[in-house]
């Protein structure tokens, strides 16, 4: 029974580790996208102002 719990626990931890990694990557992509979008808007404002 202890072996089963350990196996199940490790599988669950592995799943959460992968999930966390995936979410971290998603957040990085989202932050990058927002940053590029903001920089793009700033560049457009500079171009329009000249």
Provide a descriptive summary of the structure in words:
The chain has a domain at 24-50. It is mainly α and 50 residues long. The protein contains 1 helix and no strands. The protein has one helix spanning 2-49.
Shape descriptor reads rod-shaped
Amount of beta strand: under 5%
Order of helices and strands: H
Query: Which blocks of ≥5 consecutive residues have pLDDT under 50?
Result: none
Helix content: over 70%
Number of strands: 0
Provide mean pLDDT, rounded: 78
* Secondary structure tally, helices: 1
**Structural class by SSE content:** mainly alpha
Q: What is the makeup of the main sheet?
A: none
Considering the chains and any ligands shown, give keywords for the structure.
rod-shaped, 0% strand, 50 residues, mainly alpha, 96% helix
């Amino acid at each position: 029974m202890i072996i089963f719990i350990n196996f199940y626990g490790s599988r669950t931890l592995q799943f959460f580790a992968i999930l966390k990694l995936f979410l971290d990557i998603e957040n990085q992509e989202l932050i990058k996208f927002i940053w590029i979008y903001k920089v793009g808007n700033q560049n457009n404002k500079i171009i329009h102002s000249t």
